[in-house]
Every structure is written in C-alpha cells, then in structure tokens.
Design brief:
2 domains; globular; disordered C terminus; binds zinc ion
Length: about 475
C-alpha cells in the first residue's frame, strides 16, 4: 500500500510527501526541521543537525532491486555510541512499494543486517538485560542478548519510522538468534514502550543499486591512503575500518572519512610479522587479504607468553577471519553467531558438539600494525575464556556490554602456503564453522602443553548494529 500525502512543511512551506505508510516523521530537505505526522496534521519538532559525511553506496532518493523486488531508499539515520570511543554509523530505510514493507539496513565489520519493526511480545526492562541472557521473542524464536548499550541520534535524512530525538541518549540491546537471525530492542529514552526490530544478516550480492555502485568494493580493488607522518602509501581495504598503524614508521592513526589522523608518537616494532600487510591468498576457497597483525601476551605462572594474530579481510560477504600463531603453531579463527551457541557457563553447545571450559586468561596488546575495524591500541586488555571440544575450540568474550564467540581450529599442512607460511605436519584435521573430520592431535596437545587462549575486545566502538568479533587461539609453551 502506498500513501501519497502531499502537504507543506510547517516550518518553511516546502512540499512534504509522506508516501511511506510506515513513516512517522520526515526531515524536511529544505529547512532540516523534523516534521512529525500526528492526528492533528503535520507538526515540527526541532531542527536536525547537518549530516555527517559517512560513505555509503546507498543514497536517499535512490533505489534498486533486492532480488526481484524493487526498493527505494527512503531515509537514513546516523548514530553514535555513548560511553565508548566515538565511531558514528548509519542505517538506511528501504521502502518496498510492492508490499509497502520497510526495512532498516546497516553494516558492521563486513556484515550486512536488515531488520524491520515487528509487534513485540512483553520485553524485559532494559536495566535487567545482560549479555548472554536468553529472550523469548514469541513467534520470532529465542534470541541471546549480544550487546547492551546506549546511543544517540546525531542526524537523519528523509523518512523515519520513529520520531527522532536528536542528541537524546537512548538505550538499546542487540540480539542474536539462530541461523543468522538478528534483532534490536530500541528502549528509547524510557518514556515510551520499547520497539522491537527483527531480521537477519544478508548477502550484499543480492542487492543491485540503480546507481551501479557495488555494496562494497571487492577486496581486490585496494585504494591507498597516505601516512601523515612518513608519507608511506598504505592499503585501505574497508571504508569502515577505524584504526591504521603505519607498517613503515609505526604511526597509529584514526581513519576519518578516508583520511588518516595521526595519534601520538610512533612505537617501535619489536616483533616482525610473518605475514606482510597486503599479502593475498586463498584459504578454504576464500580470497583473503592480510590487513593487520597484532602481538598479544598473557601472564601465566610467573611467565609472559607472546603470540601473533593476523587479521584477514575476505570482502563484504565473508568479513574478517583471523590467523593465530605462537611458536609455529597456527590456528584459524572465525566468528560465530551468538545465537548459535548455547552457554551454561562451564560448557558450550555448538552444532551438536559440547565444549568444556579449559582456560581463562587476561591478554594484553603489545604491538599493532595495519588496518583494524576497531580502535585498537597497545596496552588494551581483555579477559577471555576458552572451551575445548573434539572439533576444535570455542572462545568466549564477555565484556564492555558485549558477548562474542569465535571458533578456533587447526590448519592442515600446506593450507597457509599461499601466504608463504609452512604449517608443520603435526597438525591434522580440519575445523572452522563448516566442521570437519574429528581432530585428535589437539587433545594430546592439551595434556602436554600449556594452553592459553586469548581474545581481543571490540571496545564497543565498532559502529552499526553488528556484534563484535575477536580473535582467539591456542598456544603451546
Ligand atoms: Zn521545511
Ligand atoms: Zn608512516
């Protein structure tokens, strides 16, 4: 159903059309006042700040096809988190004229999410929610609370399904359900009932924009940015990355709208990485580019242990994978959906396998090189737990209002040859989200080796509605 309601902006008199039935408000394109639809006609409610220049292939007023279905980009909202490092993100409102439905889409850490407003079952109060808690969403199934946080609306454009309250701090919870299902509860400022959005991750390859702009440039088309300190050309793989540490001089920079802003002095690189920034290779059928490396350490029984983690970018559909290395032992780490893991505290169930708590450690970042999707810095610490099972290991991180899981599995001999790395012949079997043959070497290693597990915190500043993802792995003494 399409509603064409032509009226005038109460503030400036410009024509205003509410063609979306679901739109409760609109930002006037001329005076930027918020125009709200009420029983008594249109009313204004304050002026919206100017839009931030956040890059996106979507543009309000544009359109495209999602599979066979036509959509128009009706609006966008720009947010920032409260109580965490500033990292604004934006969401776009798509309207489908065929059935009158509307969907909000957002991307975070290489994943795309679509959600739509649904009638909520009774929802728990926001201050009772903790990451890891289970919520029954009635017909939508059981979801796990992935993240609880606060945000504020910075700016908006076009049609909006809610009535925007710029700069007002609002509470929200991100939820993860089975098989890629995703949800957000918008608690607003607590004066109105919560609003529930439910949807799922989607493959950006299914969307074709009229403009012809791809949803994300493929990993192959790397552009470069200039290091503000040494002028070195640095590859920039993802527009959504937030931190770059120059591989030549070590200067850490924030990435702001495609430019680097240097932060402080350059650290020395004490640990030369074994996979270079920009190295490309295929692993398990996926083309990956190494965009960053990080050395971490932990202190166990009076000794400090170091290991290296490599961040691999697989493009918009795959997102990020990690490789971990300590003393020549390599592990592949891939993110899990929180909703796919059932967690009793000491045991996890994932895809029919049970994983038992084996270790928890406190890990510290010692060295960073390259491009990262969060504002990583030397000295950053995180507490993590590792669960061992016959297929590999699952790591859990609980902190900063966020819960994340990753799968850590060994690599087959030769698998890292595309990256110039020879994996020792001792590690056999396979792992990863797809599962594989039973792996027994790991069990022996657990007995004879000190097993340490590490993750890294996402500092809650990754932007968007997606949950965090962290690396993890095992290390033998
Ligand atoms: Zn106006
Ligand atoms: Zn530099």
């Amino acid at each position: 159903m399409t509603l064409d309601r032509q009226a005038q902006c109460p503030s400036c008199g410009a024509p205003i059309t509410f063609k979306l039935g679901a739109a409760r408000a609109q930002v006037c394109g001329f005076c930027r006042f918020v125009v709200v639809r009420t029983d008594r006609g249109l009313m204004t409610q304050g002026r919206m700040a100017d839009l931030l220049e956040l890059p996106s292939p979507f543009a309000v007023g544009g359109g495209g096809f999602w599979g066979p279905k036509r959509f128009e980009v009706e609006g966008r909202a720009q947010y920032d988190r409260v109580g965490a490092a500033s990292a604004p993100w934006q969401e776009f409102l798509l309207g489908f004229p065929e059935d009158g439905s509307t969907w909000w889409i957002a991307s975070a850490q290489g994943r795309w999410y679509a959600t739509r407003e649904v009638a909520p079952p009774p929802l728990p109060p926001s201050d009772s929610l903790r990451p890891g808690a289970l919520i029954d969403l009635g017909p939508h199934g059981h979801f796990v609370v992935q993240e609880v946080g606060q945000r504020r609306l910075l700016s908006a454009q076009g049609n909006l399904t809610g009535i925007p309250k710029p700069e007002v701090v609002t509470r929200y919870a991100d939820l993860s359900g089975p098989r890629g299902a995703f949800g957000t509860i918008d608690y607003g400022d607590g004066r109105e009932p919560p609003v529930l959005f439910v949807g799922e991750q989607f493959d950006p390859a299914g969307i074709r924009l009229d403009s012809g702009v791809p949803l994300e440039a493929p990993a192959a088309s790397v552009r470069t940015v200039e290091c503000p300190t040494c002028g070195g050309n640095l590859p920039l793989l993802s527009e959504r990355s937030e931190r770059m540490v120059c591989q030549y001089c070590g200067t850490p920079s924030d990435i702001r709208q495609g430019h680097l802003q240097a932060l402080g002095r350059s650290p020395q690189f004490r640990f030369p990485p074994r996979i270079a920034i920009g190295a490309e290779g295929q692993l398990r059928g996926v083309n990956l580019v190494c965009c960053g490396s990080m050395v971490r350490s932990c202190f166990v029984d009076g000794e400090r242990y170091h290991w290296t983690e490599y961040l691999l970018w697989g493009g918009a559909t795959v997102g990020y994978w990690w490789l971990m290395e300590e003393n020549g032992a390599w592990t592949l780490v891939t993110p899990l959906e929180v909703g796919d893991v059932s967690d009793s505290g000491t045991h996890l169930a994932y895809r029919g396998e049970t994983y038992t708590l084996s270790q928890s450690v406190h890990a510290r970042v010692e060295q960073v090189i390259g491009e990262f999707y969060w504002k990583v810095a030397n000295g950053e610490t995180v507490d993590a737990a590792e669960f061992a099972g016959s297929m590999g290991k699952v790591s859990r991180e609980h902190g900063e209002g966020e819960l994340t899981y990753s799968f850590c599995g060994p690599l087959n001999p030769g698998e890292l040859e595309p990256f110039g790395i020879t994996v020792g012949g001792g590690a056999s079997g396979t792992s990863g989200p797809g599962g594989g043959p039973m792996q027994t070497v790991m069990t022996v290693l657990i007995v004879i080796a000190l097993v340490v597990f590490v993750v890294m915190v996402d500092e809650c500043d990754d932007g968007g509605s997606g949950g965090g993802f962290y690396g993890g792995g095992y290390y033998s003494k």
